[in-house]
Design brief:
The chain has about 425 residues and is of the alpha+beta class. It has helices at about 1-15, 20-25, 40-45, 50-70, 115-180, 185-220, 245-250, 255-275, 315-380, 385-420; strands spanning about 75-80, 100-110, 280-290, 300-305.
Length: about 425
């Protein structure tokens, strides 16, 4: 019994000397240099995203429409028969009556070059919006991949910490059973040790399921779950791109704000086109008319001009509607920016708070929990403490270490969300091990 407890105590002393490392609770494979880095996971997610491919198709479609919109409308071929008799001796004859003509002609609508340029510009703005949509999709993929990667990382860290406690609880159960068999311990100690081990194994099972779920969540972005290897070290989570003093300016580049700005650009292009549509498009028509052999053939030339009789209730109303839509797009953009600024300030405050609390756990609370466990073990070895007190100290140590991992995971989640508020494709800093 005492040999097992001495081994456990020795392990506690070594753990105390490495307490900062144990705070992280990360397994060796998770910290391996050869594992899947966060940046590599994001690259994989972007490379296989079909939504990005759809965004490329939307951009190409809008660019093609811009070229088409800048051209003259298709000419219209017009054929027909004019003044065909339907009664009398010449009925249905194409050549007997001098007024009967077989007609073929061409009509061409002639919108001005400036108006055609505006129509093309509307689709160019639509292409810009499609590009902004694609950038937003990319930023969302990078953020969600980062969140999934971090969830798997810290789920693995939790498993490692609980597994360490399971090993320690197994040693304590062996010591309790040996003491009971040797007449130096009580059955209650054996039962208490068995209960503690069973509870830890149950927590280990729950933690293992969380790892399984997190692995599936990451596989949704980077590939099949069975093909996922181990994870590399964490990136630098101690810095974010946003600064409290300049959040408003920085969030002007937020992908969603960019999309709303492009929507406003489309609306403004519609305004300019509605202004141009107050000037009607003219059409010209040329027709050749063939009559019977005894009569002369004819040539007709025509000009068509739409008559805007009620401009105040039609063209002017359409222009007013387009202006209102553009103003609404601007208001929506301003409101979204204000909401993102408030959200960013709140998240930045939460992130700083969790970093401060995490530093307290790393600098004080975990070391104190390890010292308490070591002291309780020493007292138990000297006959001055009971096994339930040792088990309670271990539970307290586990809870503190798991709370530290939870704080670290929360801070990492906020880090990912803050870093992807500004712009897509920001560089991930070099990998590091948890201190």
């Amino acid at each position: 019994m005492f040999l097992c407890l001495m081994l456990a105590c020795s392990k506690q002393r070594r753990a105390l000397s490495l307490s900062v490392v144990l705070i992280a609770g990360v397994t060796a494979p998770l910290c391996a240099d050869a594992g899947l880095t966060l940046e590599a996971a994001q690259h994989l997610a972007l490379a296989q995203s079909r939504k990005l491919a759809a965004g490329e198709a939307s951009i190409a479609a809008a660019r093609a429409m811009a070229v088409a919109a800048g051209q003259l409308p298709d000419a219209v071929l017009k054929v027909g028969i004019d003044n065909l008799p339907v009664s009398g001796p010449d009925r249905y004859s194409l050549s007997s009556d001098f007024m009967t003509m077989r007609r073929i002609g061409v009509m061409q609508e002639l919108p001005g070059a400036a108006k055609r340029l505006l129509r093309a510009g509307r689709f160019e703005r639509a292409a810009d919006k499609a590009a902004a949509d694609k950038a937003l999709v990319g930023a969302t993929i990078e953020r969600d991949t980062a969140l999934a990667w971090l969830a798997l990382y810290f789920a693995g860290a939790t498993v490692q910490v609980i597994d360490q406690q399971v090993d320690q609880a197994g040693l304590e159960l062996q010591a309790a059973e040996a003491g009971f068999k040797g007449g130096r311990g009580a059955l209650a100690d054996v039962l208490a040790a068995r209960g503690a081990l069973a509870l830890l194994r149950d927590r280990a099972s729950a933690a293992g399921q969380r790892v399984h779920s997190a692995r599936i969540g990451l596989a949704r972005w980077v590939g099949s779950a069975p093909e996922l290897g181990e994870l590399a070290g964490l990136p630098d989570l101690a810095h974010v791109q946003l600064h409290a003093a300049s959040i408003g300016n920085q969030l002007g580049h937020h992908p969603q704000i960019a999309v709303l700005e492009r929507e406003e650009g489309v609306a403004r292009a519609q305004v300019r086109l509605a202004e141009a549509d107050r000037q009607p498009d003219w059409s010209v028509e040329v027709a050749f008319q063939q009559r019977g052999a005894a009569y002369s053939n004819m040539l007709s030339v025509g000009l068509s001009i739409p008559l805007q009789w009620d401009r105040a209730r039609r063209q002017d109303r359409e222009l007013a509607a387009r202006v209102a839509q553009a103003d609404g797009a601007r208001a929506e953009r301003d409101d979204a920016l204000r909401a993102h600024v408030a959200e960013a300030h709140a998240m930045l405050g939460d992130w700083n708070s969790r970093r401060e609390r995490l530093a307290r756990y790393r600098g004080e609370l975990i070391a104190l929990a390890l010292e308490r466990t070591a002291a309780t073990l020493a007292a138990y070895r000297g006959g001055k403490s009971s096994l339930p007190e040792v088990l309670a100290a271990r539970r307290g140590e586990l809870d503190v270490r798991l709370q530290a991992i939870e704080l670290d995971a929360d801070a990492a989640t906020l880090w990912a969300q803050l870093n992807y508020l500004a712009a897509a494709g920001h560089p991930i800093k070099e990998a590091r091990e948890l201190p």
